[in-house]
Known about the structure:
With 339 residues, the chain is an alpha+beta fold. It has helices spanning 6-21, 26-41, 52-60, 89-107, 123-131, 185-193, 214-218, 228-243, 282-294, 310-320, 328-338, and strands at 71-74, 79-83, 109-117, 135-141, 162-166, 174-178, 203-204, 221-222, 266-274. It has a 7-stranded mixed beta sheet, sandwiched between helices. A two-stranded antiparallel ribbon has the order 7-8. β2, α4 and β3 form a beta-alpha-beta unit.
Amino acid sequence: MEKVNLKTQNLKKKLIEIFKKHGLSNDHATISANAIINAELVGAYGHGLSRLKMYCDRISKKLINPKPKIKIKKISQSISHINADNSIGFVAADIAVKKAIQNANKTGIGLVAVKNSGHYGLSGYYAEQAVKKNLIIMIYTNAPPAVAPHGASKSLFGTNPICFGTPTSSKIPFILDTSISKINRGKIRVAARYNQKIPEGVTLDKFGNPTTDPKKALHGVQLPIAGFRGSGLAWMVDILSGVLTGANHAGRVKDPFDDFSGPQNIGHLFITFKTNLFVKNYNNRIKDNIKKVKRLPKIKGVKEIVYPGQNKYKRFKMNSKKEIKLTEVIKKDLELLKN
């Protein structure tokens, strides 16, 4: 993580102490704290401090293993299969992306599958690690039921994010990190916690009626992007990160906030590869590609055409200079978990 202000560093230390209090090693606590702080700095509040209590509750109920024996099975020089032993997802993903990077550096491509993991925060956070090593990366992970398959009235697929990252000719990486639903589930949970409304047209309640009430939405159905196309993408991610890896799939991933009947057993898939596998001038070609798009005529009200990752990078830089603001709800969480 890049340098942040002193108060943010102190907040990170608090998180590390909280995770250590719940049984995580110093290394695993640091990995987890870094991921949560990063989510706050990029403005992804639904994946930041708002989830801290949930992680600690699941550790306390022995649904997240604070002392996992993570096993990495070597299938080939390029391919690895990780059994995360129900570790906190941050740790499983950190190990997996580093292994995928290592494999790609050896052979040109790295393919790493993970099973028995948990929620790991933002996919883009891990994609950045590969991009900084001049690698292209694709990441898939499944999630608890939230989206109904096209034609069904009951949710089964998760919001199942799709992530793609590539180096660019600038210091700002191209990172597309998006769920297949019209709204991120984390945003709905944050809205529910603060009694805020959610946008129209993104969810249905349990009776199939449109709703802006986040609490009703959490018991209903989230709508996918682009209709049947979004549903198809969610299915694809469920196959790649669930069926393929040996993790839970087809609606069996447990909701981390509401279902304490067992571990989540989420699956992840990391694919990394070198930029020079087919051409030697990738950097020049990606520079030309981005420049061509940015020079297109702009519609009214648009000052700049930005590529995925640009706005998030700007938010990170801006927020790194400021103190992370803690709501009263989060302050109570921190106080409760600290004691």
